[in-house]
Amino acid sequence: MSKLAYLGPRGTFCDAALRRLAPDAESLACANVGAALDAARDGTADGAVVPLENSVEGAITQTLDQLARGVPLLITGELLLPVEFSLLVRPGTESWQIKRIISHPAAITQCRGYVEREFPDADVVAWPSTAAAAQEVAAAGSPYDAAISPAVAAGYYGLAEFASGIGDRSDTVTRFVRVSRPGSLPQPTGADRTSLVVFLRDDHPGALMEMLSEFAVRGVNLSRIESRPTGDGIGHYFFHFDCEGHVADARVGEAIAALHRRCLDVRFLGSYPRADRGRPRIGPGMSESEFAEAASWLDRIRSGGA
Ligand SMILES: O=C(O)C(=O)C[C@]1(C(=O)O)C=C[C@@H](O)C=C1
After folding, report:
1. 301 and 196 in one domain?
2. Three-state SS string across the chain, please?
């Protein structure tokens, strides 16, 4: 049975994502995303399940930065998980007693409207995860009164659901990915996504456009682009890309190879089935058979044929 690390403890959205992505896996709760990825890297676990982006909050930058550096890991699967928040309290807690609220920063931001409306004077404090917040509120003598958390954590930690559906939007989704140490890639399914990190060779006019054009001229649709600071001063960035298709597809493989030629470094983060099963629209001249035919035509003319 494989063991997967995740942002714990039991009851986080990450826990729910892991159970959906790998129902038979053993799970290893970690204190933060970095620790979960390190467990996958050093072999403590066979892989990890981590949040990558949220439909309201955008990128989970901690995950992006950790995947871009250090020992490489490959994304082997993704899941879109609807996220619904509840306010969890110790049983018997009344509204006027809720003065200190804790949760994961992403959860706090997604419930800002509710908290400002219902508890305008409360202190809101960031905690490592939603379920860690629930666990803290349940602990004897905790100075905190309420946790923004998935409802399921109430059962795990003996809390009561003071309010449910407290997110500012009811249709929020977080995209989670499963990562593993490099090995074999998931087979192409025709509905795949490829993730990459690109470090520029130098900063010059049009550098971003040159990268984008490698995808555009091969008819590869991008589904996400994110710039992240390298840390080497203001104005220095690297880029995360998600594109439609699998590295085994000629158009995707050639686009990535072109970036490898032109850029300082390209970190391949994996090709894996899309959670929404969406298939790319393949423009004229961009199909596998057309790439293959063009390659054999080139071979022919290079060897003197017509
Ligand atoms: O704290 C959790 O429950 C998590 O799984 C983390 C996380 C996140 O990193 O965005 C996941 C989904 C929600 O957006 C809030 C928190």
Report:
1. yes
2. CCEEEEECCCCCHHHHHHHHHCCCCEEEEECCHHHHHHHHHHCCCCEEEEEEEECCCEECHHHHHHHHCCCCCEEEEEEEEECCCEEEECCCCCHHHCCEEEECHHHHHHCHHHHHHHCCCCEEEECCCHHHHHHHHHCCCCCCCEEEECCHHHHHHCCEEEEECCCCCCCCEEEEEEEECCCCCCCCCCCEEEEEEEECCCCCCCHHHHHHHHHHCCCCCEEEEEEEECCCCCCCEEEEEEEECCCCCHHHHHHHHHHHHHCCEEEEEEEEECCCCCCCCCCCCCCHHHHHHHHHHHHHHHCCCC
Which one of 106, 133, 164 terminates a domain?
A: 164
Domain with 286 in it: what CATH number? 3.30.70.260
Q: Is the pLDDT of residue 235 over 90?
A: no
Q: Would you say the CB of residue 104 lies under 6 angstroms from ligand 1?
A: yes
252 and 290 together in one domain? yes
Would you say residue 160 lies in a domain? yes
| Residue 175 beta carbon below 6 angstroms from any ligand 1 atom | no
User: Ligand 1: which of 130, 149, 170, 172 to mutate, most ligand atoms within 8 Å of CB?
Assistant: 130
Q: How many domains does the chain have?
A: 2
How much distance in Å is there from the Cα of 121 to the middle of ligand 1?
24
Task: Please work out whether the CB of residue 129 comes within 6 Å of at least one atom of ligand 1.
Answer: yes
- Of 129, 164, 199, which one is at a domain's C-terminal end? 164
Instruction: Give this complex's ipTM.
Output: 0.96
Segments forming the whole domain that contains residue 104: 86-164
Residue nearest ligand 1's atom 3 by CA? 12
pLDDT tens, residue by residue, 239-268: 999 999 999 999 999 999 999 999 999 999
